[in-house]
Every structure is written in structure tokens, then in C-alpha cells.
Amino acid sequence: MKRWVWLVPLAAWALALGCENNSDVDSGDSGTPSEAEMNAAGFGLSPSGVHLGSNETVAAFTVQNGEPPYQWSLTDTNSGSLVVASPFTPEVRYKRASVTTDGANAVSVRDNRGWTASALVVQDQE
Predict the structure, then answer these.
(1) pLDDT digits 0-9 by tens, 56-74
(2) In angstroms, rounded to a whole number, what is the distance separating the alpha carbons of residues 102 and 51?
(3) What does R_g of the chain's alpha carbons equal in angstroms?
(4) Which residue of 30, 84, 119, 124 has the lowest C-beta tally within 10 Å?
């Protein structure tokens, strides 16, 4: 009986050694990249934020180190809209809905790898 007392922790330790975290093994996750991976690849939107004054209506954004096609979205389509030439071009233009519209809006992009980035548009009223 005394032999089993020390064999149980030894067996647990041996199992733990065989269950190391290996990135080559499919863990069953969604394949979503980490923020560190995207940062290391230099993926993002440029600029990361824009301030539109009361007389400014348009801002341009460019994907850095992305893989087309791109899917673009806005958090508030009442405040502005996006002008996209093609899902295969990394540029988009944000167009303010009205110079009387103030607040914040986020422009987001998702590339072919599923990587996402966002930029903030802050727009002032007079």
C-alpha cells in the first residue's frame, strides 16, 4: 500500500510532462491570431486615429501588412460612411455624414487571414 502513495504523484508528473503546450498541435481553437502576432507582423490601420474639425468631412485610412480581400465596417453608419474602391485595395475613405454630426466612430477592417484592426474617428461640431 505504501508504494501507491508515491506512485500516484509520480504518474501525475509523468503525464504532465507528456502534455506540454505545443503550438504545432491543433488545440481546437478558432485560429484567431493574438494581438502580439498581428503587432509583430506590423498589421494595422494607418493612421490609428483621426480628428475631424467642424469643417472637415473626409479621412483616409490604409491597411498596413494586410492580406486582401478586406472587409470594412463602421460602428455608427449614421455618423459617417465608407467609400471602398475594391475589396482588394488596402485604402478606404471615411466620409462624415454631416458637418453637424459630432461624436466618435470606429473604422474596422478584417483581412483574408481574419486579422482585424480599428481606427478611431472623432468628429467635432462647430
Answers:
(1) 899 999 999 999 999 999 9
(2) 11
(3) 24
(4) 30
Spatial distance between the Cα atoms of 124 and 105, rounded to a whole number of angstroms:
12
Give the count of beta carbons closer than 10 Å to the beta carbon of residue 78: 11
67 contacts 111 by C-beta, under 8 angstroms: yes
Residue 93 has pLDDT above 70, yes or no: yes
Q: What residue ranges do the domains of the chain occupy?
A: 42-126
- Please report the DSSP string for 29-97 in residue order: S--PPPHHHHHHTT-EEESSEEEE-TT--EEEEEEES--SS-EEEES-TTTEEEE-S-TTSSEEEEEES
Assign domain 42-126 to a CATH class: mainly beta
Scan for cell 498596413, then name that residue: 64
What's the CA angle centered on 93, arms 109 and 44, to 5 degrees?
Answer: 35
Q: In whole angstroms, what is the distance from residue 16 CA to residue 8 CA?
A: 12
Strand pairing partners for 117?
109
